[in-house]
């Protein structure tokens, strides 16, 4: 087994932030495709299918990709890792499902806070349990404070958009909020599972390919049920850019699978959250949608998120939070 090399934090964290930049781009594209098709499940299935095609081409075109494809079945057959890790892509399908069915009810802001809350909490849990390839990481006071600050900063950054889509009373919003929280919570497990599989496959290319296969199976099954019940969606658009959502998913799934071994699940997730906020801010400035307003809270909340991630990432010495004795 030839596993990818570990990256130092100073190299890995910028990559995590960079991979997070692809998430809002994918969201903008998939949202537009869903509106064009008038079918969120169909849009998600198309997105995953284009991502799968990209990964098939990459796997066959690159020598390392071709060489490591042969490692997939032996690793699964020999139980090099729990076989359930093969269906990690279903978690990505759940995330897209949650996005498709709750953003219209909650609005983008509340959806973002819900998913970030779930992801940061589970990032601590997954690292503590040692599920990912980085092994067990202690739940220190600094890491907890960093997580709390991240959730607060994201809420502050998206606060100008609150009320943009949420409707109904609090009781009516409970179930729609729990779905993205659950999807965000499971994302950390997906990253840990992908990272472990990457070690045994020898490359994140194979792990990403398996993810897209599993996600496509889930989404196309759901779409088949929907077609049987409600009929087909609108025809597929001819514009090429509608089909870039899948390749964006290849970027952050592949990099996430590579980085969790070096950074751990929590720090990888926090870096992606920072990239997501930075990407959203850049999109709102460069390509604003109707009604978009970049408020000071958006900029300041994004900066606070970056500060919280640095706080959780730095190698603080033991006892850094203990009260120091006064100097006499």
Order of helices and strands: HHHHHHHHHHHHH
Kindly state the percentage of residues in helix: over 70%
Radius of gyration: 20 Å
Mean pLDDT: 80
Largest β-sheet summary: none
The number of helical runs is: 13
Distance between the termini: 58 Å
Please state the overall shape, judged from the principal axes of the Cα atoms: globular
How many extended strands?
0
Please state roughly what percent of the residues sit in beta strands, choosing from under 5%, 5-15%, 15-25%, 25-35%, 35-45% or over 45%. Answer: under 5%
Structural class: mainly alpha
* Unreliable stretches: 323-328
Keywords: Membrane, Transmembrane, Transmembrane helix
Organism: Pseudarthrobacter enclensis
Transmembrane segments: 41-63, 84-102, 108-126, 138-158, 170-189, 201-220, 240-260, 267-287, 293-316
Protein name: Transporter family-2 protein
Please characterize this protein's 3D structure:
The structure is a single chain. The protein is mostly helical and 328 residues long. It has one domain. Helix 3 runs antiparallel to helix 6.
Q: Which terms summarize this structure?
A:
328 residues, mainly alpha, disordered C terminus
Provide a short characterization of the protein structure.
With 328 residues, the protein is an all-alpha fold. 73% of the residues lie in helices and 0% in strands.
Give the topology:
Elements (H helix, E strand, L loop, with lengths): L8 H12 L1 H16 L2 H22 L1 H7 L2 H6 L11 H18 L1 H22 L11 H18 L11 H32 L2 H27 L14 H19 L1 H22 L9 H18 L15
